[in-house]
Amino acid sequence: MRPQTGNIYLTALHALPVSSVRCPKCGRGELREVGENHYLCRYCGHEFYACPVCGEAFAHQRQLAAHTKKHRGVEERAIAKELGALRELLEELKALLEEVLAGQKVILAKLDELLEMQRRALALLSAKPAPAPAAEAAEPSDEELPDFVRDNPWLRVLGERGGG
Ligand SMILES: [Zn+2]
Ligand SMILES: [Zn+2]
Fold this sequence. Notes:
Elements: H1 8-13, E1 31-35, E2 38-41, E3 47-50, E4 57-58, H2 61-126, H3 147-150, H4 153-163
Antiparallel strand pairs: 1-2, 2-3, 3-4
The protein binds zinc ion (ZN) (2 copies).
């Protein structure tokens, strides 16, 4: 009966083919699995434990357990390294995105300028020409006449006659 470790990592490792394990005594691969990572050589009858990762053989289970931990440490370091690389990549990506955003802000500011210029141009085009000063429309009142004319009744009479 195979003992259950409940360790997902070891369970996954155990899925490796038994053919990679060889008897440390006679070097043959004809083995009978009598337990988890526990083998009996069909040829010489040697009983041993073998690492499911590298196939290294051990006389005792605790030796194998200590050995397997080393593998796991290597695995964890490799994962940590991968995560570190991934983090660096994400930082680079973030920096790139920030650059892109800054560029977009500049472009948006320029577009705002263009829109403002266009608005001003449209305002100029649609503006009605200023009305020409209506010089002959209104009769000049006394206040609009020069002082010497305003105070001289004779000149006013002459002016009225000439006008019509
Ligand atoms: Zn053997
Ligand atoms: Zn190993």
